[in-house]
Amino acid sequence: MRKTAFREGGFREGLAESLPWLPIVIAVGLLLFMVVLTGFRLLSPDREDVTVGAAPGRTLPAPLRPAAVTSSAPTPAPSAPGARSPVVRPSYTRLPVRTPSTRPSTRPPAVARPSSPAPTVTGAYRVMAPYDREFIGEVLVTNAGAAPADWVVELVFPDEVGELRTSWVESAPQPTLSRSGDRYIWRSGAPVAAGSSAPLRFQYAHTGTDGRPSSCTVNGSPCSYS
Q1: DSSP SS3 for 156
Q2: Which residues lie closer than 8 Å to 155 by C-beta, 6 or more apart?
Q3: H-helix or E-strand containing 215?
Q4: 124 close to 172: Cβ distance less than 8 angstroms
Q5: Half-sphere exposure of 198 (CA within 13 A, CB side)
Q6: Residue 141 forms beta bridges with which residues?
Q7: What would the pLDDT profile of 76-126 be if each residue is shown by its tens digit?
Q8: Who's near 223: CB < 8 A, 6+ residues apart?
Q9: pTM score, whole prediction
């Protein structure tokens, strides 16, 4: 009997000699496996062609059919030949319109301003005695208040009125006179009593016939004219 390489050289030398044949053996084995598998598929019957029979004495259930769909809408009546089918128009529901709520105003209420009280000290202007080149005039200062009050008379004359000759107050302390441009200002020497009057009189030179001033005020209020 011939000794193999496994016996003479040991296991390692025998394995080294067998390695070149290993791929060939594996390839042959795979080829045989594919041949057997293909033959098995060709010889086996198709599963789809197999008809499963019902067992004796057993009835197969009937196939399920879809239930008829019923509609709640009325079925339109068949129209006559040549008649137009009615047009179904969709109906619309009008939504209520919301009216915006009225918001309270954030502005503070208007505060009524108190009306200025009527002046208690007033003046009335008049020309007492007109002459050719001069005249005598008067401002009657009246105190309608409940207490004595001081007064200030201010006169402004047009160009035809010339220089002031003299001025005085009847039966009372004399006022203080000052001038600022064409303005003549008298300040009371003593308060006028409540419910009383003080006549301020003056004499002016002039070239016209009218001795009416262009401005007359008593304590800032306009004078009346007579």
Answers
A1: strand
A2: 139, 183, 184, 202, 213, 215, 216
A3: strand 215-218
A4: no
A5: 27
A6: 123, 198
A7: 555 555 656 666 676 666 766 666 666 666 777 777 676 667 889 999 999
A8: 122, 123, 124, 125, 139, 216, 217
A9: 0.50
Distances (CA, A) of 223 to 72, 134, 137: 97, 22, 13
Q: Where are the domains of the chain?
A: 5-43, 121-225
Question: Whole-angstrom Cα distance, residue 205 to residue 137?
Answer: 11
CATH topology of domain 121-225: Immunoglobulin-like (2.60.40)
pLDDT tens digit string along 9-46?
566 666 666 677 778 888 888 888 888 888 777 776 55
Burial of 216 (0-12, 13-18, 19+ CB in 10 A): buried
**CA gap 148, 156 in Å, rounded:** 27
For residues 178 and 184, give the distance between their C-alpha atoms in angstroms, rounded to a whole number. 6
User: Which distant-in-sequence residues (6+ apart) come within 8 Å of 135 by Cβ?
Assistant: 127, 128, 129, 203, 204, 206, 211
Radius of gyration of the chain (CA): 68
